[in-house]
Amino acid sequence: MELHAREVNRDVRELGELLGEIIREQRSDSAFEIVERIRTAAVDYRRGDAEDRAAIHETLDGLSPEESDVVARAFTTYFELINLAEERQRVREIREGSHEGTLEDSVRAAVEELAERDLDAETVERVLDDVLIQPTFTAHPTEARRKTVKAKLRSVANDLERLDEVRLTRDEQAAVERDLEAEVTSLWQTAQVRERRPDVTDEALNVQWYLENVLFEVISEVYDALERAVDDEFDGEVDVPKLYEFRSWAGSDRDGNPFVTPEVTEETLDRQQSVAVPLYRDRLKTLSGVLSQDAAGIDTGDRLDERLADNRERLPAVAEAARERYPDEPYRQLLKLMRERVLRVDDVRPGGYGDESAFLDDIAAIAESLRANGGEAIAEAHVDPLYRTVDTFGFNLASLDLRDHRAKHTNAIAEAVDRDGIDYESMDEDERVDFLTEAILQDQPVVDLEDREGLSDEAARVLRRFEKTAEWQDDYGVDAIDTYCISWCEEPSHVLEVLFLADQAGVVDLPGYCGLDVVPLLESKYALDGARRIMGTLFENEAYQQALEARGGVQEIMLGYSDSNKENGFLAANWSLFRNQRRLAAITDDYDVEMRLFHGRGGSISRGGGPMNDAMLALPNETVSGQIKFTEQGETISEKYANPKIAERNLEQMLDAQIRARHNAMEQPVEDVPEEWAEAMETAAEAAREEYVDLLESDGFVDFFETATPITVIEDLNMGSRPASRSEDRSVDDLRAIPWVFSWTQARCILPGWYSLATGIQAYLDSGGDVETLREMYDEWLFFQTTLDNAALALARSEMEIAERYADLAPDDLREAFFPRIREEYEAAVELVKTITDRDSLLRREWLAENLARRNPYVDPLNLLQVRLLDQSHLTEAEERTLRLTVQGIAAGMKNTG
């Protein structure tokens, strides 16, 4: 059976040809010929048919500003289209693998593996009961494309899907091809570069789109796949619990973003609820069209009768109308009442659902009644999916996490209590802990959050945020906004400060009630090394013990991958995170606290990126409690969740990995890492860190970075609402991790993903280590394998010949001081990775190598054009726009920003 009418090479070829025709029509034959001349020269060089890139440089040097714009637009648009062709290929492979039963990392494969291990139904159910996966969408500015451009690309993707999956008549195919041409033409005519920086509302709307239009639709499909697999292997003896929960920082993450105000957060909460309510209303209306069973032919059962009576009592007038309209149709009567209660969730009229629990009870009663009356298929097809959707998204689509920098809370408290003669600022750490503990435990408030007179603007904003949090929980439910993350948390008092402010707001009322998970974000070396000091002090603190007990004994701890990498370098950061996760697990185990790790991962390798399922399986067993939370950022959100089939596949892979990881952890709670391996990593990581820090702290390095990468362009790119730097200080420390990585990626020198790896490994070898041990580590230790494979990908995507062109932009002394050093480290890393992995090429996956080979000839001209523009002392407004466009084009070609 042929599932598809096309293949990726045809899509790439035809989209490229269509773009060429549009360039001819919209610009000119000569414009097309310039683009084609550059493209051909770039391909010839990569194939080895040309000795150098002289032909490309000659053409670029002769371009007018208008022609440069055409070239940048042509290659950028090409990549936008080719990305869709590759997305379509991913969908083909998913569908074909599913059809043939060959998909790896699927939930069926995970369940079959559990069955092959002779697990009984009770054990499988225990594994599933532990699992909770919490993807958390952030508004971090790594999405370079405009919303308008993304919408047009989705239309193109839909046209490609129709051509590939639907059997069309000649006229139907011609109509789709015409629509495709129209959409690509419109894309060409649309400005690619944002003229204004997106505001926080734009970012929240972007996240909401994926929740509303993709995830809301596909989540029940993942559950359905799991339930079918479980039923096949365990004869219906395993109940599948809630496994997913989506969260968001968009509209609530205040750290470093002054534009996230209480008004923005409230608007986000309100809009998400106003989106969820109509979606459920429509689902209930559709269900009413299905459940037309006659009362005379069924016994509805006590549970459904009770739910019907309860709803009738709440809404007597609606109940009477339902009786008249559906006199002998009990399911429809109940659905009518449910629909009305859903509509009143965000309505001033009484009778609406207070939260999703009663709504779920009503849905479950219908499913139970149907099954008791021989309607198993109806329940599975129509009612169970609704239950899973409501259980996942509730009435808020995604719960919001609040976040701010620890210093904001410290300063706000110091100012607020100073009015009562309390000198909080001069207290040492122990004194602060004692003061905060007593203040939290006493019945009388210490700070009136409404009285902000005389406070700085920053302190007043902090107090108002906590005051509003109490209101939001009253209006939208505690689950709508129930987590507070503390950036750069380094002391126990930083956690207690948030608990104190929440207590003053009434969000916390100890003992017995705590409406917030207070989450320390440990990202600095000082914080990670002091984890036992921080967490141990908290777990022994009377106030915090009560708060933790009220939150079910679960402590969420966030790990910062991005800044850890920027501070320590790739290898040292990865080892530090692995080692510190094990230490945190030991600490929480000592205090009998359940830990949920929150992994602050970015999209790039150097910021914790890479395949999520591989990352989950590579976590230390001690940390795998079953609950896991992780950030989804920027362009990776689009890559993972824009297409429903790919979104479903990603969710399945996460679940597959978490099921396997949790069972492995149950079987072997403490991972057996041979001492020889740990010592090898200690030696390598320490040497790698020293080399990395030495590079960054060398005189002139910041100047080299600013001249040998397009960082200054990126800072003005209007990518996100958050500033690129924390202050005006021009230093690597001050620069946010995203533009730091983005800049190196643009220059095709993905230094944050591999620099000092070779130095570290060589230090281990020089100290008496051997390659055979490293090969054994790669073959048998998932952590080391994943670390090395991720570094290999960053190395494969780096191009030293292109990077050298960027280095030439730096002053001669800086170029000679730094670029040879970087290139030497790169070349040594390439050879060592190949030696350890025993491969001829860097990449383990052949399809990835093919992908890079297909893209590289088309990225190169954009890099060379960008270098040419960066080298000019003065640019016209049109040239500035072209320069920014090259940034977006390279990001599209590399399929990565930061």
Using DSSP, what is the number of strands? 10
Strand line-up of the largest beta sheet: 1-2-3-4-7-8-9-10
The whole-number mean of residue pLDDT values reads 91
Query: Given the helix and strand composition, which structural class is it?
Result: mainly alpha
Coarse shape: globular
Spans of at least 5 consecutive residues with low confidence = 718-727
Number of helices: 38
Could you tell me the radius of gyration in angstroms? 29 Å
Give the termini distance in whole angstroms: 41 Å
Outline the biggest β-sheet. 8 strands, parallel, barrel
Strand content: 5-15%
Layout: helices, strands, pairs:
Elements: H1 8-26, H2 29-47, H3 54-61, H4 65-100, H5 107-116, H6 121-130, E1 132-137, H7 147-165, H8 170-189, H9 200-234, E2 247-248, H10 262-290, H11 302-314, H12 316-325, H13 330-343, H14 356-372, H15 376-393, E3 399-405, H16 406-418, H17 429-441, H18 457-476, E4 483-487, H19 492-505, E5 508-509, E6 513-514, E7 517-522, H20 525-529, H21 531-539, H22 542-550, E8 554-560, H23 561-568, H24 570-590, E9 594-600, H25 612-617, E10 627-632, H26 634-641, H27 644-667, H28 675-697, H29 701-708, H30 711-715, H31 737-746, H32 757-766, H33 771-780, H34 782-796, H35 800-807, H36 812-837, H37 846-870, H38 877-894
Parallel strand pairs: 1-2, 1-10, 2-3, 3-4, 4-7, 7-8, 8-9, 9-10
Antiparallel strand pairs: 5-6
